[in-house]
Fold this sequence. Notes:
The chain is of the alpha+beta class. It contains 4 helices and 5 strands; from the N terminus they run αβαβαββαβ. It has a single domain (5-147), classed as Sulfate adenylyltransferase, CATH 3.10.400.10. The protein is globular and about 40 Å long.
Amino acid sequence: MTVDPVTVAEFLRAGGRPDASCDVRRIGTDANMVRLIIERIATGEKTMTYSLPWLREHTGQPDPAPGLLVVALDAAGAPALLLELTRIKHLSFGEVTEADIAEEGIPMRDIKAWRPLHTTVWNEKLAPLGRSVSDDMPVTAEYFKLIYGQDR
Length: 152
C-alpha cells in the first residue's frame, strides 16, 4: 500500500507533531478488521499490539522503541490515529500469556483466540519469506498511547 507522504505530514502537523519522524502502518488484515481495531484504539479498549521482528527486517520498518510515533492507517490507507509507543517487551511466540495480551482488544484477550488468529495472519505474511510461526519465533509487544485522531 502506497501512502502519500504529504498526507502523513499534514496529519502529524494536525496532531501537534509537525517535525516528528514516524512509522506508518495498517493494523489488521482486511477492511473490517482495520475498522474494528481503529475503533478499539480510539475508545481506549486496545492499548497494545504485537509486531514481528522478521517482518520488520524484511520491510525496513524501524525497531519499535518508547517514544516512536506510529501513524495507524485506516482501511483506505489514510492516516487515522497517531500513537506513541510507551513500552516494548520482547518475547517468543510460545511465551505469550494472557497477562501479555491483557491490553489487546477484548476479543483478543483470550489466549485461545489470540494464538490461532495470530498464527493464521502471521503465517500468511511470513510464507513469502519462507518462514512460519513457531513457538521460538520472536515477537514484540508494543504498548502505546493515543496522541491524535478519531475525535481526540
